[in-house]
Amino acid sequence: MKKPIALTIAGSDSGGGAGIQADLKAMSAIGVYGASVITAVTAQNTVAVTAVHELPADIVSAQISAVLSDIHVDAIKLGMLFSSAIITAVAYQLAQFTGPLVIDPVMVSKSGDVLLQDAAIDAVIGQLLPRACLLTPNLPEAARLLKKSEAKTPREMVAQGQQLLSMGPQAVLIKGGHATGDICTDILVQADGSIHTFEAPRVDTRNTHGTGCTYSAAITAQLAKGQGLARAVEFAHTYLHTAIVAADQLLVGQGHGPVHHFHGQWA
């Protein structure tokens, strides 16, 4: 029997904690084969992003074509897309893809560096969101997409999730990691009106680099396995929380270190 296959289309993180590298680690840890398309190369570690090199849109397009023409992909995740040209190329190549599409609207790195050009935001909204089965913004990303201030309460998170639904995705997962308080709350709002809340104790660690990438990749992996959306988010939420709890075991870098993707395989 064919094993489930997921494709990640995102940027490369030379430090290994986020982007393509985090996606492939999460997918592998969960038991899904991961293929990849690189949109940009970053010179990056746990402290800062020191350089970003955008790949030509035709090279991004060629990578997608090469993968989809040969490999049966069950689900796709979009991460760092960086520019309008890349977004247009991705949208064109995925026009015939009918499987689950998860969009993690990567905009700013953990160190504060911009990973999505301002001019590209409208392209994401117009060309990609209507195709998404799930959009996974954190609080700053949701606010930037809506051109509003960040949600402060669960009620405001639900309201912003519902507003983002009007842009076309079938569901929106608003992630509360940037909020304060002892409990971290994520809220899944779906077009059918259902709302699911996922909570976990906030972990006292600075090693949270790549949490958004890991979360969306884990969801995508579960969707590739054929799991329903709410269950896929529930699984990924637990997987990520455990990866954060185990993050301090890795001792990687001097800044925001990565989560432990393989906490279930090795300590």
TrEMBL record:
One of its GO terms (molecular function) is hydroxymethylpyrimidine kinase activity. GO terms for cellular component: cytosol. It holds the Pfam family Phos_pyr_kin. Keywords: ATP-binding, Kinase, Nucleotide-binding, Transferase. The keyword Ribonucleoprotein does not apply. Residues 13-260 form the Pyridoxamine kinase/Phosphomethylpyrimidine kinase domain. This is Pyridoxamine kinase/Phosphomethylpyrimidine kinase domain-containing protein. It comes from marine sediment metagenome.
